[in-house]
Amino acid sequence: MADRSRFSLLLLGGGARAAYQVGVLKAIAGEVPRTHCTPFPVITGTSAGAINATALACYAPCFHLGVKKLEWVWKNFTTDMVYTSNFSTLYRNVVKNLTARNEHPTLKQTISWFDNSPLQALLTRLLDLDRIQRNIDRDQLRALAVTASSYHSGDSVCLFQSKDNIEPWIRAKRRGIHSPIKIEHLMASSAIPMVFPSVELHGEYFGDGSIHQLAPLSPSIHLGADKIFIIGMEQPKNRFTYQDEVAMPPTGGAIIGHLLDTIFTEALTSDIERMQRINQTLHFIPTESRKKCGLKPISVMQLNPSKNFNEIAARHYTSMPFSIRSILKILGINNNTAINSSLISYLLFEQAYCQELIDLGFEDASAKMEEIKAFLQL
């Protein structure tokens, strides 16, 4: 029997793209007994992945039920469940953010394009966060970690809820804080820069956890895991920046999408490479010396989408609210150029798009299920 306390699930950020994670989890749930607890005692998440991770932690005693709850929410999503999209509220918010800070420099007001208070209301209604500690106390969950980025210190801050024997940590540009997970932690972790407002926590303002997250594997390792299953967001590249073999300049929307791709995916690639080098080095160090140094080899399996999210999002572009498309048009994104920018794939919280990502995740995981089962020892 595998020591399940060693297994961790890592869910990355990506706005609406996180629907893909639900499809992968749905496929894995099909390989677990219906009434079985989570196969991932350590669950860590960032941004939208933090929300999915927290939902799974709430339903740790029954993995099937947790995945079913997630799927129901994602396949019934509309933009208005995440952020306000009517013309009056949207433009009032934009104008307020452009003018209020200039007129009142000391005003405690966060800057953002959209008001995501509907998401906060949705999470408050759907998530019973008191369940997390009960699940930990009953040994049905070892730890839950949510990562956010401090705009004040520039640190990547891991907020974790776990057994008392896991100590907080401080490393270069990252730290772990033992704290019961609250709705405001999820709002902070998913506050995409400029898109959603930053959140005040512990006397600092925080934004999306992917911003300063140079070591995405760190929370899982600090929380005791040495086998980490990652549902990634690194998609096949298709930039469409050429026309008749002539390079075309990127639009504002394409540049923003490129920056978001960098924030959400690049750090993980570097961290996995670093982990692999450390694993190779450990082969030359005697076991006793490893223990004294607190080092151990880490195994990772990463599943990335087989299809390009931008292409899928472009097909569903017209399902976005007209007011959102009007703002995107200012950035050079319209029905003809939608495929050139990743931005749409992050903001498109609409049923048909989310369902297609769920289906893609299910297909990708099913195609590699034997490999996944072997890694997770299911």
UniProtKB/TrEMBL annotation:
GO BP terms, alphabetized: lipid catabolic process
Keyword hit for Zinc-finger: no
Record keywords: Hydrolase, Lipid degradation, Lipid metabolism
Renumbered ranges of motif GXSXG: 45-49
Highest taxon listed in the record's lineage: Bacteria
Gene3D superfamilies: Cytosolic phospholipase A2 catalytic domain (3.40.1090.10)
Keyword Nuclease tagged: no
PNPLA domain mapped to chain residues: 9-221
Active site: 47, 208
GO molecular function: hydrolase activity
Pfam families named among the record's database cross-references: Patatin
InterPro entries, A to Z: Acyl_Trfase/lysoPLipase, NTE, PNPLA_dom
Protein name: Patatin
